[in-house]
Amino acid sequence: SRLGAGYGDTITAVSSEGLTRNFKIAGLFHTGTTARDEGEAYVLLKNAQILSARPNAINEIRIKLDDPNRAPVVAHRAETELGYKAVAWQQANESILEALVVRNVIMYTVVGAIMLVAGFGIYNIISTITHEKARDIAIMKSLGFPEADMRRLFLLEGVAIGAAGSLLGGILGVSMTYALSLVRFEIAATGQEMTRLPIAWSLMHYVIASAFALGSAAVAGYLPARRAARLNPVEIIRGAS
């Protein structure tokens, strides 16, 4: 559009060597990256070599893999067998990957702190239930319930609270994530056009969060459960009377 040309028109390209060559616009592409869309054009390799006065020269070869994680292995193999320097995309974008690692550490630290606070909440709930059920505990122990059963009873209650919270939190999280994915906006100032939030959907995130929640609930429920199992039924009944 800046050249006033369109599909099917012929333009003249001039190289730094002073060579000129006519090219017909056979197609248009749009990647969303402003720097590439405004500064790149694709031509046949032979024509590019002639225009740059470098016949039979190739600057760069890019290899696209089905599995991007195998890039370091393939780069090492290519460098060993061909003798040319090969760089994997992980190595080329090392600074960005390091920033993502730091972000993940911060994210999991915040999530861990939230789980810790939730664990204290479950501990308070189970402790309150234990105090309110002291008379019932005494009666059950008088009837012959062993301490192991009492511990198991309150521990299961804590785990049940954690499981219910995990289920409710998972449903709420999926709903909020889906709602965020529907938000539309446009940002072109950074050179990358975006119309929606780049949200990553992964079942592993919910599995990890649920595991943390159940672990916190189990630990928070065990301490009151152990205290409840050690209560002396005679003292409880005598105090209640």
What this model shows, in words?
The chain is built from 9 helices and 4 strands; from the N terminus they run ββαααααααββαα. It has 2 domains: 10-92, no CATH class; 94-240, no CATH class. The strands form 2 sheets. The chain has a two-stranded antiparallel ribbon with strand order 1-2. Strands 3-4 form a two-stranded antiparallel sheet. The mean pLDDT is 82. It is 61% helix and 7% strand. The chain has 241 residues and is mainly alpha-helical.
Write the layout of secondary structure elements.
Elements: E1 10-14, E2 20-24, H1 34-39, H2 45-51, H3 71-82, H4 89-92, H5 94-132, H6 134-142, H7 147-181, E3 184-187, E4 194-196, H8 203-229, H9 233-240
Antiparallel strand pairs: 1-2, 3-4
Helix pairs in contact: 5-7, 5-8, 6-9, 7-8
